[in-house]
Please model this.
Amino acid sequence: MGIAEEIAARAAQIDKMIEGYLPTEEGYARTVLSAMNYSVRAGGKRLRPMLMEASYELFGGQGERVYPFMAAIELIHTYSLVHDDLPSLDNDEYRRGKKTTHAVYGEAMGLLAGDALLNYAYEILAEAMVNDALANGACETNMARAFAALSSNAGYRGMVGGQVVDVESEETGADSMSREKLSYIYRNKTGALIQAALMIGAILADADEEAVGKMREIGDHLGMAFQIRDDILDVTSTLEVLGKPIGSDEKNHKATYVAVYGMEQAKREVERTSEEAVRILETCGGDCRFLRELFRYLIDREK
Amino acid sequence: MGIAEEIAARAAQIDKMIEGYLPTEEGYARTVLSAMNYSVRAGGKRLRPMLMEASYELFGGQGERVYPFMAAIELIHTYSLVHDDLPSLDNDEYRRGKKTTHAVYGEAMGLLAGDALLNYAYEILAEAMVNDALANGACETNMARAFAALSSNAGYRGMVGGQVVDVESEETGADSMSREKLSYIYRNKTGALIQAALMIGAILADADEEAVGKMREIGDHLGMAFQIRDDILDVTSTLEVLGKPIGSDEKNHKATYVAVYGMEQAKREVERTSEEAVRILETCGGDCRFLRELFRYLIDREK
Model:
């Protein structure tokens, strides 16, 4: 089985696992449940849960205790896209070749479905922690640490922070963008959840502090590589391959890495950061074959 | 000291406690931090943390372990108001006599500040749980249970669910509103967080299941009484007293309890549900004087 097939098989498994967490569309509030499920089922690469599970396995983690965290991080990623697509932010009608949530359910329901998805991620963690506590007399420290890593990287010190600066930097254009600020945006908007995924896998597998620190570093590099690759694809890909209009960054005068540093430098930075991620990964011990190939795949992806 | 002064003194203490959790407005993302802090500082009665603390005390709870939960529930309440005020929902420019968050910071920042506030509530809980786990070797079961009560009541099975049905019921008007659906909206949109506050106080004070169940019931009645009182004030109060335009429910053709059942029946229902709440409260044992007076005060309030 090639890496593409292996990734597809894992994504299918993750889809099935997440499906088990989705609410049944019934009762008075079923419109929002339907909008939540639509958003999650609209797909995506399931990259964050996949990274989390692979990190968990790398450090010898076994069993299903990582599942609620995998589901939660994907729901948080999904809510961020739903809100990002809203008219007051990017105002996107399509994502991954499908209508965005608010384009189908209306703006009010897009807003509320995003809120419900974010909150539900934590409901899932809370239930897992209660079950752990009831089974063992108290809730394991690593679960609390994983909860802290997820919530902290998802909030104003992480993903939301990056999103805010990204929004504010639009329209100011490439000229006024400092290297430091661009790096802040990428590390937080895109990097923070990727980093959380890798760290949480290690934490739940009871890896030591040094290993969790390495995952933090790897996540930082990988997030950067992944986002710059995204910028490159916005220039070089097509609507058919990408499932959304290309050239939108330029249209929005967005100060991307490509706009600020040019295409060649962007490609070199993707190489440099992904090589650095692999270099650190190989010092972690254990069988890192899948993660290494996954990193490579993400960097070489065409969509 | 009369009950009004006692409530004001407690609210001031709560303000001070919450202030200690607010992020410092610095760094690239400071606009959203400023919007978060503006939203929280815009005030309000601090009713939910006050109910939580009083319930905690009623069941013999001591010390500061209830503080992170008090802060978290107020942040969740605040985020819900910030999103509720957005143009795609109620489109309100004023609340409590002050400009709403999006009216000051713009719609994109209102959306993101709400997201950041909701997420931050859980960051606060996560940090408290990690600290508890590091101090005691594992995280106490009651903290996990309190986390579950908060998250579950804040989401699609609670506050967001009620909000969704409320939004969908607008424009359909009073005629098409069933008693059951109106009750669903009130119990969830308004009741769910009030209920969570009372339950969490009991849970963290290590009260037994029966006591937590009583708090659940009380919260249900009190939430109903509180929301109907809100509807009554929307008809009978003034802009100056309420800090927001009155008559907005009628203008929006909103199917409130008053619109559906009339003013007299609404007043009777406030009396009935609040008396029921007090009746159950008095079976809980302990000194319930403050909670009883607080219930009364909330029901008799003029704003």
Remarks:
- The longest helix of chain B spans residues 107-136.
- Chain B touches chain A through 65 residues (CB under 8 Å).
- Residues 58 and 285 of chain B are 8 Å apart (CA to CA).
